[in-house]
Amino acid sequence: MELILQDKKNIFYVSDKVFNCNFNEALIHQVIVSYLSSSRQGTKAQKSRAEVSGSGKKPWRQKGTGRARVGSLRSPIWRSGGVTFAAKPKNFFQKINKKMYKGALRSIFSELIRKNRLFVFENFSINIPKTKLLVNKLNSIKIFDVLVVTEKYDNNLLLASRNLYKVHTKTINLIDPVSLVSFKHVIITSAAIKKVETLLL
Q1: H helices of 69-162, where?
Q2: Which residue of 17, 104, 156, 189 pairs with 31 in a disulfide if CB–CB is 3.0 to 4.6 A?
Q3: Helix (H) or strand (E) segment spanning residue 193
Q4: Which residues pair with 171 in a beta bridge?
């Protein structure tokens, strides 16, 4: 499959097995749901009436006081009582097979190419970590709302992009399906896309 290097205007070849796959919406949805669910901390915790501090003594006798009957100071309807259906730590992990995950990434990359949302550069970098330089560079190629994927960690790009709302930078080993579909455009270096090809074949 042929891609064009935007900065060199040369033809760049990639594998059809990775970058020319059918769009599998159901698979992508399943992988994204799994990724987001597995990212949840699940650490929310509340105390039930059995766990809150307080005496187990009956506050007053059952009959004769004129007040409602009460059996515990730790009742959920009382102030400082326990929570009725107390939340407990929970693991939201959803297992996804490696083949499914790779298949979803292949489908996403293929769809990005089909919709002209993926741009390949031989080198995409700035000399100094200035946000204005990165904005000017993106304005010159008329690309906004973009995920920039590089092969190696680029400190200048990271520092320049972190104050921009719809510009994000990641290395190839940190890409995920959610990031790829969240941005309107994806800029990737030729070295990074070759690494993607190796990982997804």
Answers
A1: 98-114, 131-141, 155-161
A2: 104
A3: helix 190-200
A4: 150
HSE value, Cβ hemisphere, 13 Å, CA-based, for 31 = 23
pTM of the model: 0.84
* Residue 70 pLDDT: 93
Burial class (CB in 10 A: 0-12, 13-18, 19+), 21: buried
Q: What does the alpha-carbon distance between residue 121 and residue 19 come to, in Å, rounded to a whole number?
A: 16
Residue 198 CA to residue 201 CA, distance in Å, equals 6
Listed residue (83, 100, 86, 112) closest to 14, CA to CA = 112
Q: What letter does residue 173 receive in the DSSP assignment?
A: G
Contacts (Cβ under 8 Å, ≥6 apart) of 76: 49, 82, 83, 84
What span, in angstroms and rounded, lies between the C-alpha atoms of 136 and 139? 5
* b/e burial code for range 45-75 (CB count within 10 A of at least 16 → b): eeebbeebeeeeeeeeeeeeeeeeeeebbbb
Distance separating alpha carbons of residues 75 and 54, to the nearest angstrom: 10
Which residues of the chain fall short of a pLDDT of 70? none
Dihedral, CA of residue 31, residue 32, residue 33 and residue 38, to nearest 10: 90
Please say whether the beta carbons of 19 and 4 come within 8 A.
Answer: no
